[in-house]
Every structure is written in structure tokens, then in C-alpha cells.
Design goal:
Helix content is 33%, strand content 28%. The chain is an alpha+beta fold. Among the domains are: 163 residues, Rossmann fold (3-Layer(aba) Sandwich), CATH 3.40.50; 81 residues, Elongation Factor Tu (Ef-tu), domain 3 (Beta Barrel); 61 residues, Arc Repressor Mutant, subunit A, CATH 1.10.10; 58 residues, Arc Repressor Mutant, subunit A, CATH 1.10.10; 57 residues, Arc Repressor Mutant, subunit A (Orthogonal Bundle), CATH 1.10.10.
């Protein structure tokens, strides 16, 4: 169990740890000279079963205090009997509460300096201060470093708490917030920090935030004891290799997966009751995320009025990227007042918005991410959206296996890295079919709709939906046009006769010219061309060159041959001619048409393919 000390400056936190453990946690020369804690200090007792994190009490070093606190720790609130509760006592209590600590004990230090009456008064003041907080029912234990026996009741309380202390262990990737970096002779670089989630073993590979570089774990110590593994809740030291000392610092992270850089997070902001003014849109704040820190702004999602205390959902816009995850607890301090403003629970994180900040679509999506579990969140999201599983997994910090199990449990429709609910998928199917059906009813002579003309579908699902309808024989894809299977284009009687006679003639790689057709049919060339242009308007033919028309599906087949031909290198007219059996002049006409469509591009005497479809 990790015990975080908190309390006003000079109330005896460091002396108390020394009396409990025999360790002087003031390791810096400046700390010893000034007689106050500046940075974090650590000590362990009972073979590492209980660890102490000594945090600074002075207001100037509040950022270091925040870096030492994690939600799965046990609090040891330190209040001097002669002073009683002081401003920093209350601020530290607020921070402990906002970070999510839910258990603790109160040490009443310097008890030897006051009489019984003063002890009673201070206890009453403490009870008033902690009323309504997680320390409301905590024991208040008088102590004095002058009386070693006074430490026994406090130690007993801590050991009792350690035996029942439960960690919230979930199947999540490993994640450690770095608070110290140093080198050990013969070992190399060592980083220390609190494990926020997951489990790590020797020789595992981790990724460094913010560089993204991979490191290997050479050795592990947990609670100052050699170990083969470290897990959520542990204070651990990792001996790593793969990075230089000057590239790692407090505020960085190590994780089992490369961690995304988020500049914005949507949070549930809880403003402390004592904060002296309302929160306005774009209020500048300090954002503390475990050991990380960034300045930033609060963006209100309801700008009609300022936020006066209480709780509300807001956006945090950071000046520096942070590796947010859903459920992370943040501390916010007002930049101008230098006071703790409140705490924030991360609901969602993003690098940029696809919608306006306060749009109904975005707010509805944030409602889904504000659910208490990834299962309920994914279930709601997938009812009305296509969900990117990688982005969802990153925010909720899920392993690949747990993400797969979740989509299987919810019986999601999967398309590579995308999922949606069955209901949403069926709705997209209905929309696509209806769009084609309504178009053909309103345009009886139309041969169908192209993919980009079907507007009512989710763009990321459109091709999957259309393919499914074609495979189920609900739609037919004819030369890139989607139509109902029973479609028979209504033509005037004279064109109907021409079309039925003409179509078989044109189902070849090299079609005859209009002059050749006119001679074959014994009809004027001008009349043939007029009729073929009428069929072109109905998209049954493509006017390729001055006297040549092609079936759309025949050109699609030739385009596939071109893609195959250009797979390894640019191709020439001669190579196209030889592979298709088409004469040189007609081959040139076809390739020039492909050039005009932007399907191919001429490079000297050769051509390259620019896209995968005609």
C-alpha cells in the first residue's frame, strides 16, 4: 500500500516519515539547508508492504505535491497540534479528494507542544474541515517525534489499512507516470513512478511518451525490493535501455503501447466550493495529469453563462499534448490566482474535432463517452455511428483482446478497424436501397446511380453497404452504376430496336466505327451516330472518339487490363495493343479517353495509372 502524506508546510511530514521508517526523505541539499521539502521523497517499511510518498507542503511547490498523488493510494493527512488546520491543509485535502483517494488517516503531529484543551480544540477544527470528505470518519492519531511510543498507534492504523487495501486491477495495458530519472553505476538509466495500470515483467518492451521510442526493461524494483514484475498501484523503479538520460524527464510516461498525443480533452469539471470566482469561457489554467503538466484553457460547452461552482462538462485545450485516457483524474489550478480551481475526470480526448465544439452531433457523441464503462459507451456509440476501434481503444485504454471480446459480446458488425451495431448496419442497407429505388422511380430512363451520387450513407460504410447489396442480388452494379436487378430501361420503340441489335456488336475489345456499322446495316452513318448519341445520354454507351462508341462495362474491363499491365512499370501503346489485341489507332483512342478521365497519365512514350477505378 502506498501512503501519500499531505499537509501544510512545516507541520512535520518529513519528520513523521523519518520516525515511522528511519528514512530521511529530504534527499536534496537545498531541502536540508532550508528545512523544507521541495521535491518528492520516498520511504518503505515492512519489506515494502507500506511505502510513503512525502510531498512538499509549501504553496510554491504544489506542482510537485500533485505529482506524488495517485487515486489508488492511502492518505496520511498531517496537521500540527500547535497550528491546527491551515490553508495548505485544506488545499491538500481538496487535491486528495479530487484525484480520487478514498481512504486515509489523520496524524496530529507536535502533540507534545500543547495541552489537552488545545488538542481537543484542534481535533474539533479538523473534524469541521474534513466534514463531507473521504476523511470524515478517519481516525485522528496524536503523535510526537519526541515520543517514539506515540508512533505505535499510527503504525497499527496503517498496517490494518494495508491488510484490507484493495487495488482496482483491470485488464489494461501497462502505464507508468515517471517522477524521477537517474543513473546507477553498472546498471544505467533508472526511472521511478507509480504504475497506473497493467503489468510489466523483465525484458518487456515499453514505449516512451512523448518521443514514441521503444525501451527494454532490464530490471524492476517494487516498493524498494527486487521484483520480477510490477503491477497497477506499485511504486516501482525500472532499469531501462534504449534512450539517453537527457531524453527522459518527470512528466513523461512509459506504456506497453505507443501513446497518442492529445491536445484536447473533454472532462467532467468539479469546482471546489471555496474557489472565489466564477469560471468563464477560455479561463487560463495549469493542468496537472499525474506527473505531467501543461498550461491551457477551459472551453465551456455552454457559453451562455459562467460556471459558478458545482460540476459541468467542459473541454480542456492544452498548450502541450498529454496522454489522456478515459477515467484519468486531473487537477486544475487558476493561473492568475495561483489557487486550486478543481478536479477533472477525463471523459474523452481528441487531437481535433470533426464537428463544431458545441454541435449537437458532437455533444451526443460525448454523452456516449461519458458512460461509466467501455461496454455501455461502445453500445451507445455504435447505435448511431461507425466506431474506429483503435481510437476507442486508445481513449478507454483497452487491450486488443479486451476490445475484441467487447465487440463480440455486443455482436457488432466489423469492417476491418471499424464497427457498428447491427441496427445501424441494417439502417444503412435500407437507405442505400431506397436511394436507388427512388431515383429510378423518378427517372425511368436512368440506368442507375454512381456511388458518389448516393448521399444518404455513412462515407466509411458506403462501399461495404453497396457490395453487400450486390452480393445479396438486391442491387446490380452495371459499369459502375447501381440499379435494381429487374431494371429495364424504357426506350422509345426505334431506340429499343437499335439497342438490342447494337449491344452484342459492341461487346468486344475493339468495337467497329460508326461508319463500319452503317455499312454493315446498310443505313446512313449520320442516322447511326444520332441514335448512338441518344443511347449515350441514357448512359448506355460512352462516346469514346469522333466515330467510336463503347459499352461502359467493356471500358471497365479494359481498365482492369491496364491496371495489371502497369503493376510493375509504365506501359506503352504497343504493350497495351499487344495485351488486348486492339489495333494501334483504336488503342490510342482508348488511352486518350483514359487520360481525359484522369485514370491514366502520359509520361513521354509511356503511361502510368493514377487510380484503381476508371
Amino acid at each position: 500500500m502506498i501512503v501519500t502524506l499531505a499537509g501544510h508546510v512545516d507541520h512535520g511530514k518529513t519528520s513523521l516519515v523519518r520516525a515511522l521508517s528511519g528514512v530521511d526523505t529530504d534527499r536534496l541539499l537545498q531541502e536540508k539547508q532550508r528545512g523544507l521539502t521541495i521535491d518528492l521523497g520516498f520511504a518503505y517499511i515492512d519489506n515494502g508492504q507500506i511505502g510513503f510518498v512525502d510531498v512538499p507542503g509549501h504553496q510554491k511547490f504544489i506542482h510537485n505535491m500533485v505529482a506524488g498523488v495517485a487515486s489508488n493510494q492511502h492518505a496520511l493527512m498531517v496537521i500540527a497540534a500547535d497550528d491546527g488546520p491551515m490553508p495548505q491543509s485544506k488545499e491538500h485535502l481538496d487535491i486528495l479528494s479530487l484525484v480520487g483517494i478514498r481512504s486515509g488517516v489523520i496524524a496530529l503531529t507536535k502533540a507534545d507542544r500543547v495541552d489537552e484543551q488545545r488538542l481537543l480544540e484542534v481535533k474539533q477544527d479538523i473534524q469541521q474541515m474534513v466534514h463531507g470528505t473521504f476523511l470524515q470518519d478517519a481516525a485522528i492519531v496524536p503523535t510526537s517525534i519526541e515520543d517514539p511510543a506515540s508512533m505505535a498507534p499510527l503504525l497499527e492504523r496503517l498496517r490494518d489499512a494495508s491488510r484490507v487495501h484493495q487495488l482496482d486491477v483491470q485488464e489494461k495495458p501497462f502505464r507508468l507516470a515517471i517522477d524521477r530519472v537517474f543513473t546507477v553505476k553498472g546498471a544505467g538509466i533508472v526511472v521511478t513512478g507509480t504504475v497506473h495500470s497493467g503489468r510489466i515483467t523483465v525484458d518487456d518492451t515499453l514505449f516512451h511518451f512523448p518521443s514514441g521510442s521503444a525501451v527494454r526493461v532490464r530490471g524492476i524494483r517494487t516498493q524498494d525490493q527486487p521484483a520480477g514484475a510490477a503491477a497497477a498501484g506499485d511504486r516501482c523503479a525500472l532499469n531501462i535501455t534504449g534512450l539517453d538520460l537527457n531524453t527522459i524527464a518527470r512528466g513523461h510516461w512509459l506504456g506497453a503501447e505507443s501513446q497518442p498525443h492529445f491536445r484536447e480533452a473533454t472532462v467532467r469539471l468539479e469546482v471546489i466550493a471555496e474557489f472565489p470566482r466564477a469560471i468563464k469561457h477560455w479561463t487560463p489554467v495549469h493542468i496537472y495529469h499525474a506527473t505531467s503538466h501543461s498550461t491551457g484553457r477551459i472551453a465551456l460547452l455552454d457559453t451562455r453563462k459562467a460556471m459558478s461552482g458545482g460540476s459541468s462538462r467542459v473541454d480542456l485545450v492544452c498548450d502541450e499534448p498529454l496522454p489522456f485516457r478515459q477515467g484519468d483524474q486531473l487537477i486544475l489550478r487558476d493561473q492568475s490566482l495561483d489557487l486550486t480551481l478543481g478536479g477533472a475526470f477525463v471523459c474523452h480526448a481528441q487531437t481535433q474535432h470533426s464537428d463544431r465544439r458545441r454541435s449537437g452531433t458532437r455533444l451526443a457523441r460525448l454523452d456516449c463517452y461519458s458512460e461509466i464503462s467501455p461496454e455501455s459507451s461502445l453500445s451507445r456509440l455504435a447505435q448511431a455511428h461507425v466506431v474506429d476501434t483503435q481510437a476507442f481503444r486508445a481513449v478507454w485504454h483497452l487491450t486488443e483482446s479486451s476490445m475484441s471480446a467487447l465487440t463480440e459480446k455486443l455482436e457488432m458488425q466489423r469492417f476491418g478497424g471499424l464497427v457498428c451495431s447491427k441496427a445501424y448496419w441494417l439502417d444503412q442497407i435500407r437507405r442505400a436501397y431506397k436511394a436507388v429505388e427512388q431515383h429510378q422511380k423518378a427517372n425511368s430512363s436512368s440506368p442507375g446511380l454512381r456511388e458518389n451520387q448516393i448521399k444518404a450513407l455513412d462515407p466509411s460504410l458506403k462501399q461495404h453497404v453497396l457490395n453487400a447489396l450486390v452480393q445479396a442480388n438486391k442491387l446490380r452494379n452495371q459499369g459502375g452504376l447501381y440499379q435494381l436487378p429487374a431494371l429495364e430501361i424504357e426506350l422509345p420503340a426505334d431506340l429499343e430496336i437499335v439497342w438490342k441489335r447494337l449491344a452484342p456488336t459492341l461487346r468486344v475489345n475493339q468495337v467497329p466505327s460508326t461508319g463500319d456499322i452503317a455499312k454493315q446495316w446498310g443505313q446512313p452513318q449520320q442516322l447511326i451516330e444520332t441514335q448512338m448519341k441518344a443511347l449515350t445520354k441514357r448512359k448506355l454507351l460512352v462516346h469514346l472518339a469522333t466515330h467510336r462508341f463503347y459499352l461502359p462495362e467493356q471500358l471497365d474491363k479494359l481498365a482492369l487490363q491496364v491496371i495489371t499491365l502497369a503493376a510493375e512499370k509504365p506501359f506503352s501503346v504497343a504493350e497495351f495493343r499487344d495485351s488486348t489485341g486492339i489495333g494501334r489507332n483504336v488503342a490510342i483512342e482508348i488511352l486518350e479517353y483514359f487520360d481525359r478521365r484522369g485514370f491514366t497519365r502520359r509520361q513521354g512514350n509511356a503511361r502510368v495509372v493514377l487510380r484503381t477505378k476508371l
